[in-house]
Amino acid sequence: MKDRLFFQSSVNDEIYYLKDTIFVKFNVKRNGISTSKLNGGFSNNFKSVFNHHLSQENIDYLENHDVSDYMIQHCESLNIDSNYSTGLTTLARMKNVSIATKSFKNIEVVALTTAGVRTNAVRAGDPAAYYEENGRFGTINTIILINAHLEYETLLEAFMTATEAKTVALNDLKIPSQYSNGYATGTGTDGLCIFSNLESGNNLTNAGKHSKLGELIASAVCESIKKAVKKQVWISEKSQSNVLVRLNRYTLDINEFYDNMDCDKEEFVRILQKDMKKQDNVAITTSILNLIDEFENNLIEKEDAFNLACLIKENCESYPVRSLLEYWINYFIN
What we know:
Distance between the termini: 54 Å
CATH topology of the largest domain: L-amino peptidase D-ALA esterase/amidase
Largest sheet: 9 strands, mixed
Structural class: alpha+beta
Low-confidence stretches: 131-137
CATH class of the largest domain: Alpha Beta
Helix content: 25-40%
């Protein structure tokens, strides 16, 4: 992808593709909050921010080098002053970036996101682990530009709103955690940077969920994450509307199921491939999984969950789907 300017905000911030990096040059004075190893935390002196794709060569280099030193070197390669910049790193491809802009009257929020969620999706509170497979792990990186002026406490509130919005986006897509049976709330390596405009006379003091600013932040984050996930790992509302995808959240060794089948396996799989995307089968599967969730979280009694799940299962007209549901019910409830 050639170096080029591909977006400008309402205050003329310039967003470029530069080699394997998305680079944002600020054309107003900005303060912000960043999770980066480069000038992370709060600052009133940010002049730029970047999101950088790590190649396998970069990853190998970082095994024996400091991340912050690497980012300083990367700033030098881009000819920017590392003292006034901050940045995020990821294995997601920069060509899969998603930008969402939301505005109301004189407020504008721009969210730029890259996202990978297949191998590193995790639910807050899952057992601690750092998952890496052949150097491939997921990261959701989001950069948010706000054209109004926010003090530090409001930036922190915006940070909280954006983080909650990330969870909403992943739950809307039914992204499963790779470490538990729950839905993911993020990945283990997410990054977030939020910036406000110090030159703006529009001083906003609330970025929570009741405020219009909070609504715009959450809306932009949700949209940009969903689009980025679809670009990077091909997960969308349509791909998630699938019986097998839904069942996979409560993972079982399916080989035991197939070994004990007393029917024609080839015919079983053929029918399943046809039936697994039918909306009624997806709806029935989701209802049963919800009962398993309720039982797992001690919200309903085991006997009630089991009996209701069995009743719902009988409404499934697909023999393969019904057989799978019975297997899941017996394993996770009975």
